[in-house]
Amino acid sequence: MTGELISIGVAFSWTATALLSEYGSKRMGNLTLNVLRMGFALLFSLVLFWAITGNPLPANASSEAYGWMLLSGLVGYVIGDYCLFQCYIIIGSKFGQLFMTLAPITAAIMAWFTLGQSLQPTAILAMAVTLAGIGITILGRGDGHRLSLKLPLNGVLFAIGAAICQGVGLVLSKIGMNHYEASMTATTPSWLLPFFANFYRCIAGIVGFAILMYFKETFAPLRRSVGDRKGMTAAVATTIFGPFVGVGCSLMAVQYTAAGIASTLMALTPIIIILPAWWLFRQPITFKSVIGAIISVIGVSLFFLL
Questions:
Q1: Which of 33, 53, 65, 240 could form a disulfide with 179 if both were Cys (CB 3.0 to 4.6 A apart)?
Q2: What are phi and psi of 147, to 5 degrees?
Q3: Is 63 exposed, middle or buried (0-12, 13-18, 19+ CB in 10 A)?
């Protein structure tokens, strides 16, 4: 039950992250919030390592582990979170998290290509069900009674890009963790491995976001954000629930239970987020949105549990 409970906790953690990130992105800007998140995540990690091991730095690993984890951070954090936070600004966290149900499916397809993990025929059914759930929520009748998007196209594309990058980044993290685990000493607590691995992902994240910020909008918004108490509070909170505790525990969950069960329980976020999104941002709760979210989560469940 340990892995299952951790997975459910991660679903609630990612719900809080999505809501806080939507608020923080609209208040401070996408790049500013992400630079702060990566910086706080590195700081919190250093404190954790020092408290547990007496050394603020993570355990040494092979060059292959470093390379895979940095690549994972580039794909999952820099590209993936940039797309995710942009979709939060455009279509909101409720719809953004609905599209994130595509991430576990993307991860399974990526694992099929890179790790040789089997992809069963039932996966096609699961993909169809998940896409049907998303379609029910975001499609409606437009002019001439043709199907049309009820959401801005750019927001939808950012959401799809975020889901793909998160799935690919997860598999890259798995490859990197395999190399990292092989080089760890027996005296290092095994539960710290996800946090060690995530430390290097965050390094890639802060470097990547800083480069984007320099060329896109300079560092002036970052300097102004330091005096924004509400914005900084949101940045610290979303770091705790997201790249620090959330990501670390998501990687920890698969150490205690099957990856399929963990992924399915963590994919409950689109359902959990419906009520708080209405309460905080007055995003309407419609019958179609609830049914669509439930069908999408069922699709993810079929993908892993059949």
A1: 65
A2: -70, 140
A3: exposed
User: Strand 139-141 and strand 147-149: pairing?
Assistant: antiparallel
CA neighbours within 13 Å on the CB side: how many for 65?
20
Residue carrying the six token digits 């949101």: 234
d(CA 63, CA 67): 6
Question: For the chain, which residues make up each domain, given as ranges?
Answer: 2-305
pTM for the whole structure: 0.86
Rg (CA), the chain: 19
Tens-digit pLDDT profile for residues 33-84:
999 999 999 999 999 999 998 999 998 888 999 999 999 999 999 999 999 9
Cβ(24)–Cβ(234) below 8 Å: yes
* DSSP letter (8 states) at residue 78: I
The alpha helices in the chain, defined as continuous H runs, are: 2-28, 30-53, 63-73, 80-91, 93-99, 102-114, 122-138, 153-183, 193-216, 220-225, 229-239, 245-256, 259-266, 269-272, 274-281, 287-305
Is there a contact between 28 and 228 (Cβ–Cβ < 8 Å)? yes
**pLDDT tens digits along 70-112:** 999 999 999 999 999 999 999 998 889 888 888 877 877 887 7
Name 28's Cβ contacts closer than 8 Å, sequence gap at least 6.
36, 221, 225, 228, 231, 234, 235
